[in-house]
């Protein structure tokens, strides 16, 4: 019996010795296309190399190439660098990421994430949504810019109005804002119910509001402005501006900024204490928490959401987006870099690198912070009207701007009804698109294909 036990032990030892050792990743020099090589290395590269000493990074700088060329179109330069340099990783701001993704220049990451059990659950859902298309994930980001509805507690208390809450619709926000509309008495400065950055351009303000509810201004070759839904939205914008409930940024008298605080007050009127609510990005959150505004009592709620889909409305914008190029020579090494940037190890050092940034991978501290948690609550990101119109030819986009600047002010002032203005805008925008399509031969080719 003793011999049998000894024999079995020897067999086990031999089998263990023959077992295949786990393969170590091959060292690689990962080629990265980044906007600015120096900033990339300071923020990401040096930390990656410190934790992956067998790898090296070769960083190609878009800014450097633009300087060498004496300027030019950044989109064109990025396209040329992707083709010429054939990078493994593309690490660029979100607008370049979207363009590369839509052109088919990026690899989906889902199979890689699944194979390596890369945890996506702790990443802010709206960020993941912003980095996905047609159900597939194409990018990883360590940080993002979030948006929230900020409110002045003192003003709400003075008027005995309940504070805003999460998941309010735009209609509810407008109703609240109108309760603060009042003309200033004597030398008292005006107070406002709502500050929204795009009030300077009421057309874009209306489009942003409409996108929250999934109302499209353009789809499948047709403009769709002349509808009851759009008329209601433009009417709400008009009422809010004309009543004084909304601060009209086009009419704001900005003082010459002599110091940082004056610059902040010009850019973020909420800081003056005379605005009840503001829809703004996370820079306002950082400013409020950075000192100098301790006397301002404030709170936060989620940005307005869709009435039909209350989890939709987040305006999360990923910052530097890391993707694997479609023709990457070293996709495995590229994925190693992406895993680090989007993983727990980098998330742990991020507060030391940039304590003011919102981490895409939220920690327990983020979730327990009542204010910061607002940025992580919504599941899906709004579609941007800029993105939906961005597919149009540039001459048409320029014409849209001209048309909107002609008719929107007339609708806002009452010189033309909102309904008539929308009819005119839709008709003239469609004519501009049809002419462009005819000139480029799109219309004739579509006709031939349908036959």
TrEMBL record:
Its main location: other. It comes from the Bacteria. InterPro entries: Bact_solute-bd_prot1 (IPR050490), SBP (IPR006059). SUPFAM superfamilies: Periplasmic binding protein-like II. It holds the Pfam family SBP_bac_8. Gene3D superfamilies: Periplasmic binding protein-like II (3.40.190.10). Keywords: Signal, Transport. It is found in: Cell envelope. Residues 423-451 are annotated as: Disordered. PROSITE patterns: PROKAR_LIPOPROTEIN. Residues 439-451 have a biased composition (Polar residues). Residues 423-438 have a biased composition (Basic and acidic residues). The keyword Signal applies. The keyword Oxidoreductase does not apply. Belongs to the bacterial solute-binding protein 1 family. This is ABC transporter substrate-binding protein. The lineage of its organism: Bacteria, Bacillati, Bacillota, Bacilli, Bacillales.
